[in-house]
């Protein structure tokens, strides 16, 4: 009986490891392919996630965007230049600090933001259609724990 439990555990660990590996490969594949978001046209995952991090609320500082994305200020500057050239993001001078710039979305950027949000909701609806309420709760807990593990 003991041997059977050990074999079962090893099988589950191996299966879990393989599935996690497959998930990472599929996520990497998704991260490479541009997709169309509203009137913005095709955007890379980095571009749409930058738009998502800026959001539709009040304007944010470049440094705040860098912090939200966990990237350098230099990388944010390059991304903002690219998004500005496509009329998705606008940079304005900070009213109190002449060295700082505030970022906000243009109407075209807001369209991309909303399309991206809709994609997320649609995906989550599809997932919920395949899972029970208990499975959804387990999934959400597992994803939270996985994110925490990947942070360290």
The CATH class of the largest domain, by name, is Mainly Alpha
Largest sheet: 3 strands, antiparallel
| Order of secondary-structure elements | HEEHEHHEEHH
Order of strands in the sheet with most strands: 3-5-4
The backbone outline, from C-alpha atoms, is elongated
- Compute the gyration radius: what is it? 20 Å
How is the CATH topology of the largest domain named? Arc Repressor Mutant, subunit A
Low-confidence stretches: none
- Which percent range fits the helix content? 55-70%
* Distance between the amino and carboxyl termini: 37 Å
Mean pLDDT reading: 87
Percent of residues in β-strands: 5-15%
Number of structural domains:
2
SS elements, strand count: 5
Separate helix tally: 6
CATH homologous superfamily (4th level) name of the largest domain: Winged helix-like DNA-binding domain superfamily/Winged helix DNA-binding domain
For the record, the CATH architecture of the largest domain stands as Orthogonal Bundle
Q: What structural class results from the helix and strand content?
A: mainly alpha
Describe the 3D structure:
The structure is a single chain. By secondary structure, the chain is mainly alpha-helical. The chain folds into two domains: 1-32; 35-151, Arc Repressor Mutant, subunit A. 69% of the residues lie in helices and 11% in strands. The chain contains six helices and five strands; from the N terminus they run αββαβααββαα. The chain has helices at residues 2-32, 45-54, 62-69, 73-85, 107-130, 133-151; strands at 35-36, 42-43, 60-61, 89-93, 101-105. The strands form two sheets. A three-stranded antiparallel β-sheet has the order 3-5-4. β1 and β2 form a beta hairpin. It is elongated, with a radius of gyration of 20 Å. The chain starts with a helix and ends with a helix. 14% of the residues are buried.
């Amino acid at each position: 009986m003991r041997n059977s439990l050990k074999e079962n555990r090893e099988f589950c660990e191996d299966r879990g490891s393989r599935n996690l590996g497959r998930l990472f490969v599929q996520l990497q594949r998704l991260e490479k392919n541009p997709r169309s978001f509203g009137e913005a046209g095709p955007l890379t995952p980095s571009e749409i996630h930058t738009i998502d991090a800026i959001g539709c609320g009040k304007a944010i500082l470049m440094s705040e965007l860098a912090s939200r994305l966990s990237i350098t200020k230099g990388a944010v500057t390059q991304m903002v230049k690219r998004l500005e050239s496509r009329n998705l993001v606008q940079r304005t001078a900070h009213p109190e600090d002449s060295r700082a710039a505030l970022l906000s979305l243009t109407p075209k950027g807001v369209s991309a933001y909303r399309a991206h949000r809709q994609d997320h909701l649609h995906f989550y609806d599809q997932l919920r259609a395949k899972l029970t309420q208990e499975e959804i709760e387990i999934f959400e807990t597992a994803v939270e724990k996985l994110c925490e593990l990947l942070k360290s």
